[in-house]
Write a structure and sequence with these properties.
This protein is α/β, with parallel strands linked by helices. 42% of the residues lie in helices and 16% in strands. It is globular. Helix 1 packs across helix 6. Strands 1-2-4-3-5-6-7-8-9 form a 9-stranded mixed beta sheet, sandwiched between helices.
Length: 346
């Protein structure tokens, strides 16, 4: 007689196998979830660290106030303060000549300060130009604790405020309007280019080691430092950067704006072995510029080293460039052909 209560053995085996498969699937899904969460957490952590490295500024220390000034360069100067659009006061050194209209505004690099520009700035002053050097927000001995550095956004506002200050000084002294040139290194060069694209009061730009795109130079330096692909970390960092500064990384890009400078002249300088801002950025900017332009590349040199290797030639070229273009004649010399020089002076 059949035992109706006994279940077929194969059905028991099938049920047990299905249960085991489900357990394995559950563990696999849990592993994927954990791995995905860990990857996401790592990406967010790296992105946050990257943005912090770009934007944070430490509290100033007393020793930073004891540094070289134009006095040590045998140059006459005055300490000045001027406001940005939001009222933040910036400190600077102003070297001037009575009755001189030609004025060069110098801008330092990311994490630097105004004395970084002392060499070329005092050379220009001794050649007869007025020169203003100043510290960007988040830089220099008078920076505020916790104040952000933005690699372009706020620094551009600061540079435009410096132009306003020069115009104010000339008006206050009942002088004719100034004739302004821009001189910058690294970030300062990028800021000078974008400032000139947005403000026609700048007549000529000397741009040493500028990046063409903020996002691209950040991605390059991330890859160089970590040996990891920039995506997805830089994509995530873009979101973090916008939360902190109010703008995405891509919103500050000299190459997107440089063509609007036409026909005003630009002199590009770059080291061919630059691993902070690769020389490809200089070639990209040069190609995008539509007015008169010159490009000086020293193949063996790194970031912002051309001045230090060839001080005398650097001085000669910078002075000649501004003498040619900062004139009272409003008609720029459009007949000059663009120049490219790629080779060592050594």
């Amino acid at each position: 007689m059949k035992n109706l209560n006994k279940k077929p053995e194969k059905n028991l085996n099938k049920t047990a196998g299905t249960k085991a498969n489900n357990e394995r699937l559950g563990w696999a899904l849990a592993g994927v979830t954990v791995a995905g969460g860990a990857a996401l957490s790592a990406t967010l952590g790296l992105a946050n660290y990257l943005v912090s490295q770009i934007t944070k500024s430490s509290a100033p220390n007393l020793s930073e106030s004891y540094t070289l000034t134009p006095y040590e360069m045998d140059a006459e100067f005055e300490e000045v303060l001027f406001p940005t659009a939001n009222g933040r006061m910036l400190s600077g050194w102003y070297m001037s000549h009575e009755g001189e209209r030609r004025t060069v505004i110098s801008a330092h690099g990311h994490g630097g300060r105004k004395e970084d520009m002392l060499g070329i700035s005092t050379f220009l002053w001794k050649a007869g130009f007025n020169v203003l050097m100043f510290d960007f927000r988040g830089h220099g001995p008078e920076r505020m604790k916790g104040e952000l550095k933005t690699l372009g956004t706020q620094e551009l506002e600061d540079y435009l405020a410096a132009i306003d200050f020069i115009y104010y000084r000339f008006a206050e002294d009942n002088q004719p309007e100034p004739i302004i040139g821009a001189c910058g290194g690294s970030l300062g060069a990028a800021v000078a280019l974008v400032a000139a694209a947005r403000d026609a009061r700048i007549r000529a730009v000397w741009a040493d080691s500028s990046f063409s795109s903020r996002r691209e130079v950040i991605a390059h330096n991330f890859e160089t430092a970590t040996h990891l692909p920039s995506r997805p970390v830089v994509d995530t960092a873009d979101w973090v950067f916008k939360l902190r500064t109010g703008q995405p990384m891509g919103d500050f890009s000299p190459v997107k704006e440089i063509s609007t400078m036409t026909p005003r002249p630009i002199y590009f300088i770059h080291g061919g072995a630059d691993n902070t801002t690769p020389v490809s950025h200089a070639h990209t900017l040069y190609a995008a510029a539509k007015g008169y332009k010159e490009l000086w590349i020293e193949p063996s040199l790194e970031h912002c080293q051309v001045y230090f290797k060839f001080r005398q030639e650097y001085r000669r070229r910078a002075i000649a460039f501004f003498q040619d273009w900062l004139t009272s004649d409003n008609q720029l010399q459009k007949s000059l052909e663009p120049k490219v020089e790629e080779g060592s002076l050594a």
